[in-house]
Structures are given as structure tokens and as C-alpha cells.
């Protein structure tokens, strides 16, 4: 006898309760049931004092497990895992820099950047980690629950397992809120991507001493401070869906325009289809030839026993470090790091149109991007590198901005696991008529909501612009 096939149960395509739940956590700038915000500094210092941390620059020959390949000159690990330092050649249509060569990190594996969330007293809290990275200024910063490359979580280093990894690997009872592949710094990584994840769990979770529960609002408060929240955490935070908007309690016109910028019903200069079409044209028409080359074949760079650097001292250098860190899965290791010359600038120029805040983004080319172009900040550079050449557009607008027009300003470190004291000054600067509604080619005005929509998909928004979205969300 034939039986009818049992029909599967259908679910809603979108969780309609999520925006309100996120809004409640965003509004909670303190926690009544977990760590209070005024307790955070003491907790972070306690975690720093609990272990011995030491980072020392050493000659390349003292890097344990690393060597220069005799055929290519590439700096590689004996396991064949982790990453390598290779050469890159880029030919572009840029009149100022039509061809350039540089070292680049090649790490052909997808890492996991994941924040575990759970409700306490009806409010979502994020499980955050005090994580030591050798390149971090101050070493210890607030990071996601899990921040690990595949080499790390598959224990190539033969150290202890990555804590809480199972929650991001399909553990029963978990619910995925966000899971999207995003690029890392395309100027220094070759096609590097990470899964940016938010996962909710309702059951009991044992909390290690190096972890704490914070609301999204508490984390946003910490994003306003220099060098507290690390780059992976900022990246994951930027990928959160838009919380439910409250238009009734905005403190001033700027915050009202920011709330309107997140509201799809308030309109924008360009429709979503127009934005995607503009961006597709930018990607499809950009003429670029990118080739990996042996590190030996990178001209105008030299290698000593302690560094790989440009002969003119610009941009960055490659150094070696020896690390001791009692809180990590492996308590001691060696590795190369990239060290930039100078503090960077990453800025959104923002402007109100009909009461709706828009951010000025650029279709930015970086040699390490898979798709050549991603949306970047209005300005993204290290000004020191442009002392004797033409400066990027809008750099003067940002550097000469009156303090009253700066809506956000903080210094944040880039990824401390690969970059040594790589700091960037992040700014949100409001302008009026001095930047036209019709921007130069390669730039476009988008609302915050449109940027958030794009962040649901991978490799549209670069890492610096993602940090700036996290900063904008921290404003209020």
C-alpha cells in the first residue's frame, strides 16, 4: 500500500522577532545580570595580569619552524600550513601607480570569527573573549568568542583545542543568526576570507575566566574607545542585521537622520538595484592583472636578517617575532608580522539628504581581493606614504575637518595576529555642500541601511568599511 510522503515543516524566511530583540540589546548599555560596563576595565586588567605575555622582535633565522624557500625566496612554515609571505605583482589602470610589486600574505584557508549569543533576563548578550595577539598595541583586546584560522582549530600547532568551537560547527540546539564570508585586508592578504558568524544558544554555557557576557550596547560603548575591541570583533558586529528602529526618542537632528538612514521606508538617493548595478559596472570594467610571484622577484624591496622592506622606507616592512602567551592554545611560538609605517586614516564622509544620512563610499581596488573591487571608506590610506605624491581624494576634507563636524573618532588596531601595531584612526565626518550630491567617478552615496543589506553577502564591503559601520552603529 502506497503512503503519502510526509510533508516537511516550513519556517518563516525571516525571523520577525530578531530586529526587536537586537534593538533591546543595543539599547542596553549596561547589564543588570552579567558584567556591568564599569567593571570591564578591572576585568580586562585582571586577565592581563593573570598570564605572562612577551613579544620580542628577532632575526628571521630565529623563527622556529619558518624558513626562506631556496627556489622562490618565499617565507614559509615547515608544516606547509598557517600562511606564507610571497610576492605580488599588480598592473592596474591607475595613472599614478600603473604597476607595483609587494610582499603579501597567502593563507589559503577560511577562518572562523564567531560571536556566541544568549538571552539573560530577556536581553541578548555576546560571549566576548580577552584575547592576546602579538601585534596588538597593549597585546590584550576584546575579541569574538572564536577567532581561529583553520590551521589553529585543526590543531596543526598541536596545542589545546579552540574553546567554544563546537557552537559554530553545528552543535545541537544552536541557531545561526549570521554566517557570511568576508574578506580580510586586501592590501596585505591574498584572497583571505573568514566566516563572520553570530550563533545563538539557549542552553547552559560554562564561561571560562577569559570570557565575559556583554550586551551589544555594552560592546558598542567599548567600540567608542581606542584599541579595546579588535578588528575581528568589529567585523562580526558590522554584519548583524538591522535592529528595529525607534524614531521617537532621537536626541538631535543628526541621530534622527542616522535612524532614518537605517529605515528602508525613508528612501535613499539610489535604489538598491541602482547601487548593485553601479557596483557591478565598477567590478566588470576595472582592468587589472594580478600575479603571485616569487618573493625573490619583487623589485625595490630588500631583505636583511631582520626585515623585508622597501628601499624608500614607505608602506610597510616584514619582521619576525618570538611570542610567549600563557592564555593561548600554544603558549609560545614564532612568526612573521607586517608592520606599517605610520598610523592610517579610514573615514566615512557623511551628508544628509532630505533628512536621511548617507555615507560616501568608494569602489576600492586592492590587490588581494578575490573580485578586485570592494566598497571601501571615503578615505583609506596612511598619509605619510603620500608626502611626495598626489594624495587620495577627500583626504584634506577629513584631515582639516572642524571638530564640531566629527561624529566619531577612535584609533583601532588592525588584525593583531598578522600585523604589528598597525593602527588606524577611524573617523566619521559630516559635511554639507562642500561634497557634491554627484560624487566623482568611483564613489557613491549609500544609506547605512543599504550598507547593512550588502553585508548580508560576502565580499561587497572591505574590512575597514566594516569597522566604520560598526563605529556608526556605536554612535547610536
TrEMBL record:
InterPro entries: EvaA-like, EvaA-like_sf. Coiled coil: none annotated. It holds the Pfam family Hexose_dehydrat. Signal peptide: none annotated. It comes from the Bacteria. Residues 38-240, 273-472 form the dTDP-4-dehydro-6-deoxy-alpha-D-glucopyranose 2,3-dehydratase domain. This is NDP-hexose 2,3-dehydratase. The lineage of its organism: Bacteria, Bacillati, Actinomycetota, Actinomycetes, Pseudonocardiales.
Amino acid at each position: 500500500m502506497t503512503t503519502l510522503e510526509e510533508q516537511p515543516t516550513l519556517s518563516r524566511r525571516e525571523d520577525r522577532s530578531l530586529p526587536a530583540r537586537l534593538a533591546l540589546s543595543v539599547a542596553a548599555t549596561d547589564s543588570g545580570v552579567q558584567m556591568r560596563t564599569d567593571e570591564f576595565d578591572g576585568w580586562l586588567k585582571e586577565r592581563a595580569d593573570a598570564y605572562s605575555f612577551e613579544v620580542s622582535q628577532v632575526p628571521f633565522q630565529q623563527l622556529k619552524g619558518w624558513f626562506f624557500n631556496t627556489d622562490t625566496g618565499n617565507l614559509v612554515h615547515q608544516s606547509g600550513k598557517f600562511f606564507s609571505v610571497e610576492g605580488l605583482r599588480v598592473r592596474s589602470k591607475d595613472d599614478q601607480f600603473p604597476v607595483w610589486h609587494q610582499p603579501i600574505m597567502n593563507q589559503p584557508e577560511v577562518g572562523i570569527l564567531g560571536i556566541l549569543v544568549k538571552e539573560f533576563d530577556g536581553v541578548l548578550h555576546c560571549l566576548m573573549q580577552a584575547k592576546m595577539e602579538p601585534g596588538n598595541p597593549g597585546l590584550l583586546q576584546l575579541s569574538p568568542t572564536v577567532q581561529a584560522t583553520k590551521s589553529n582549530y585543526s590543531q596543526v600547532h598541536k596545542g589545546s583545542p579552540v574553546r567554544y568551537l563546537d557552537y559554530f560547527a553545528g552543535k545541537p540546539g544552536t541557531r545561526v543568526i549570521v554566517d557570511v564570508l568576508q574578506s580580510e585586508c586586501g592590501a596585505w592578504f591574498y584572497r583571505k576570507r573568514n566566516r563572520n558568524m553570530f550563533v545563538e544558544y539557549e542552553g547552559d554555557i560554562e564561561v571560562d575566566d577569559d570570557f565575559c557576557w556583554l550586551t551589544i550596547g555594552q560592546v558598542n560603548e567599548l567600540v567608542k574607545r581606542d584599541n579595546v575591541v579588535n578588528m575581528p570583533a568589529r567585523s562580526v558586529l558590522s554584519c548583524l542585521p538591522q535592529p528595529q528602529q525607534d524614531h521617537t526618542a532621537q536626541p538631535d537632528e543628526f541621530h534622527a537622520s542616522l535612524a532614518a538612514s537605517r529605515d528602508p521606508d525613508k528612501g535613499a538617493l539610489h535604489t538598491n538595484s541602482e547601487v548593485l548595478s553601479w557596483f557591478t559596472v565598477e567590478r566588470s570594467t576595472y582592468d587589472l592583472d594580478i600575479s603571485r610571484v616569487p618573493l625573490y622577484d619583487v623589485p625595490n624591496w630588500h631583505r636583511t636578517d631582520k626585515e623585508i622592506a622597501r628601499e624608500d622606507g614607505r608602506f610597510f616592512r616584514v619582521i619576525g617575532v618570538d611570542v610567549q602567551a600563557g592564555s593561548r592554545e600554544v603558549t609560545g611560538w614564532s612568526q612573521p608580522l607586517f608592520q606599517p609605517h605610520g598610523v592610517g586614516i579610514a573615514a566615512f564622509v557623511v551628508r544628509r539628504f532630505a533628512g536621511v544620512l548617507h555615507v560616501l563610499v568608494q569602489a576600492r581596488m586592492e590587490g588581494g581581493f578575490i573580485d578586485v573591487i570592494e566598497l571601501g571608506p571615503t578615505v583609506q590610506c596612511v598619509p605619510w606614504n603620500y608626502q611626495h605624491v598626489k594624495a587620495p581624494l577627500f583626504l584634506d576634507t577629513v584631515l582639516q575637518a572642524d571638530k564640531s563636524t566629527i561624529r566619531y573618532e577612535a584609533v583601532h588596531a588592525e588584525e593583531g595576529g598578522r600585523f604589528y601595531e598597525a593602527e588606524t584612526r577611524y573617523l566619521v565626518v559630516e559635511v554639507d555642500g562642500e561634497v557634491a550630491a554627484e560624487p566623482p567617478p568611483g564613489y557613491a552615496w549609500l544609506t547605512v541601511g543599504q550598507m547593512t543589506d550588502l553585508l548580508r553577502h560576502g565580499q561587497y564591503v572591505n574590512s575597514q568599511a566594516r569597522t566604520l559601520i560598526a563605529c556608526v552603529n556605536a554612535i547610536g
